[in-house]
Amino acid sequence: MSDAGEEAIVRRWRDLLACYSTVSCALDRALQDAHGIGMSEFEALDRLVDATCEQRRMHDLAGDMYLSQSALSRTVARLERAGLVERTMCADDRRAISVTLTEAGRERHAQARRTQRAVLAEHLVPEPVPVRANA
Amino acid sequence: MSDAGEEAIVRRWRDLLACYSTVSCALDRALQDAHGIGMSEFEALDRLVDATCEQRRMHDLAGDMYLSQSALSRTVARLERAGLVERTMCADDRRAISVTLTEAGRERHAQARRTQRAVLAEHLVPEPVPVRANA
DNA sequence: CGAAGTTACATGCACATGCATTCAATGTCC
DNA sequence: GGACATTGAATGCATGTGCATGTAACTTCG
């Protein structure tokens, strides 16, 4: 790798860091202020809405999110405490937990989604970009 | 904003999140394992090396990094405890603190930088990208 | 069936972070 | 000069995170 290439990559990383910091900070703050949930909570609700059945097992949910298993466990616990999801035992595998959106969860997500879109629109431009070389 | 535009932005955000999570996690782990410092510590050392005098006031340092004032204060405290920087009072403003690289700090940074470059090269492609629309 | 290994989730713990506050030094205005 | 506001940095506190571990349920293999 040439020095020029290295420097380009470092610049790229700094841009990425700057962009992520700005957006995630603004997003977290906006969601917290307007809806009382953080970014992780919103992401979790979002995955549940995306799921056709609005019901996912913890393990599947964890696979979609950039959170450790323990962090997800606590995130879902917070959502349950807030009445936005319900945790129920899986009939077919009694180790697993099914997470289901409640009506309140659906509504909260719908409202928070508007905030999210607004914040993202304010900070990002739409062109899609292949940022990652390797997973 | 059209729905298509909104979706493009959300896709963009997800890509950004994915990329940031992957890279920052790998980077933090590599730096911690190989050199005993985290990403924030490395960033701070990096700013100090960039500075021609290798000496910055806390306030200036904070401006360059995506850390709160208190987080920077503790980051520098960790670096000082590790013997990588020194904190000295500013003569001209006795509220301010000057942060200076030690010889050990310079060496540690030089080594850590190789690790950083390697991790970034592994995960990022070099093309620069205008990710942010607004600060 | 029964023992050993694996999987799904929860939890104790350590730690980094942000917010609010504190404290000292500096600046401002009269 | 003296009162009040502002600034630079440190710290108490609450919180979110990851790692290691614990526990129950499932699986495999004899």
What oligomeric state do the depicted chains represent? homodimer
Structure annotation, total helices of chain A:
5
Q: Which range best describes the helical content of chain A: under 10%, 10-25%, 25-40%, 40-55%, 55-70% or over 70%?
A: 55-70%
Overall form of chain A = globular
Structural class of chain A: mainly alpha
Mean model confidence by pLDDT of chain A: 90
The CA-CA distance between the termini of chain A, in Å, is 20 Å
| Biggest sheet record of chain A | 3 strands, antiparallel
Question: DSSP strand (E) fraction of chain A?
Answer: 5-15%
Radius of gyration of chain A: 18 Å
Topology pattern of chain A, helix = H, strand = E: HHEHHEEH
Strand numbers in spatial order across the main sheet of chain A: 1-3-2
Extract low-pLDDT stretches of chain A.
Answer: none
* Number of distinct beta strands of chain A: 3
Please name the two chains that share the biggest interface, counting residues whose Cβ lies under 8 Å from a Cβ on the partner chain: A-B, 38 and 38 residues
Protein name (chains A, B): MarR family transcriptional regulator
Pfam families (chains A, B): MarR
Keywords (chains A, B): DNA-binding, Transcription, Transcription regulation
Domain HTH marR-type (chains A, B): 13-135
Short summary:
Two copies of one chain form a homodimer. Chain A is mainly α and 135 residues long.
Tell me about this structure.
The structure is a homodimer of 135-residue chains. Chain A is mainly α. The first copy, chain A, is built from five helices and three strands; from the N terminus they run ααβααββα. In chain A, strands 1-3-2 form a three-stranded antiparallel β-sheet. Chains A and B meet through α1 and α5 of A and α1 and α5 of B. Chain B binds a DNA duplex (30 and 30 nucleotides) through α4. Chains A, B: InterPro entries: HTH_MarR-typ, MarR/SlyA-like, Tscrpt_reg_MarR-type_CS, WH-like_DNA-bd_sf, WH_DNA-bd_sf.
